[in-house]
Amino acid sequence: MHKSLFFISSLSLSLLFLFSGCSGETDKTVTDFELEHGIGPVNEVITLNEINPELAQRGKMIYDNLCIACHQMDAVVTAPRLRNTANNRSAAFILNYILNPEEMSQRHPVGRQLAGEYPGVKSRLGIEMEDALAVLEYLRLAAKGETD
Fold first, then answer.
1. Based on the number of CB atoms within 10 Å of its own CB, is 73 exposed (0-12), middle (13-18) or buried (19 or more)?
2. Which of 19, 34, 37, 67 has a Cα at 20 to 30 A from 114?
3. What structural domains does the chain harbor?
4. CA separation, residue 132 to residues 6, 88, 129, 139 (Å)
5. How far apart are CA 111 and CA 72, in angstroms?
6. For 28-72, what is each residue's pLDDT tens digit?
């Protein structure tokens, strides 16, 4: 009887560990840098200069074409509002989220929280670094209240 109980308990614990590892989440550890600055191709702190109005204008065009359907500046549609994002997150975090939304939504604590609150699709839209920098510049301008 003791052997049966021990076997069943051992089997149950083994299955628990096995299935808890099969949740679809990766077991990779998130570093301190990634916690603050996101997971993705940007792996160093970004130092920002003054806002470049021309780059921000280009960022607005990209935002209007690719982002606005889900992300509004001041309203929640299917994704979080973005007006104050540049005030609340580092430039590296924003760039990593733009460039790597799937992994951010799966591995980063903030990304997982947002994915739970806004279960819409988080797919990469084909935005490359140059365009992501333009969108970041537009978000910086919006955070200063200098956009529509």
1. middle
2. 19
3. 32-143 (1.10.760.10)
4. 56, 17, 5, 10
5. 18
6. 789 999 999 999 999 999 999 999 999 999 999 999 999 998 898
